[in-house]
Design a protein that fits this description.
Blueprint: H1 10-19, H2 21-33, H3 37-75, H4 84-102, H5 107-128, H6 139-142, H7 149-157
Length: 158
């Protein structure tokens, strides 16, 4: 692990931002208070880059699992299409909605991440579903519920 006070280059900053974002935020605040705006700017840019890549990963993760589960769910007999399947799919839908609400910039990569998630889910589903074609879900199948954005707004006011 890199000690905060020994960070001298961008690679070190990136590694510390991943390991310890809170101490990095404190370091950026101290730099601002001491008039070291260039150092603070560099620290904040590294932290933002790390957070952005983490959020993109979370978006892809939830899209992938949701798409995969929807694909398998579509293949299930009607008698098995209840319970944890629906709960789990709804959980991923809500996580995606929350990520997009709290990070509007993710909208720019959403379609790319969705296409990638569908491709990956098809490959996995083909391995599980033998002797039948995989039913590729439509966008409506994947996102069949309307999200109550007001629910997320209330969270911010409490």
């Amino acid at each position: 692990m890199i000690k905060i006070n020994t960070v001298h280059n961008a690679q070190d900053l990136y590694e510390v931002a991943q390991e310890a974002p809170y101490p990095m935020a404190k370091r950026a605040l101290e730099a601002i208070k001491n008039g070291k705006n260039e150092e603070a700017s560099q620290i904040l840019e590294e932290m933002m880059g790390y957070i952005e890549s983490k959020h993109k990963h979370f978006l892809w993760h939830h899209l992938y699992h949701l798409t995969y589960k929807v694909m398998l769910w579509k293949q299930l007999p009607e008698s098995e299409k209840e319970g944890t399947w629906l709960t789990d799919m709804d959980k991923h839908r809500e996580e995606i909605a929350l990520l997009l609400y709290k990070n509007p910039d993710l909208e720019l990569v959403f379609e790319q991440k969705l296409a990638s998630a569908i491709e990956g889910a098809i490959e996995i589903a083909e391995g599980y579903i033998k002797n039948e074609p995989v039913l590729i879900p439509s966008r409506e199948d994947i996102f069949e519920i309307e999200h109550n954005w007001e629910m997320f707004k209330q969270e911010n006011h409490e």
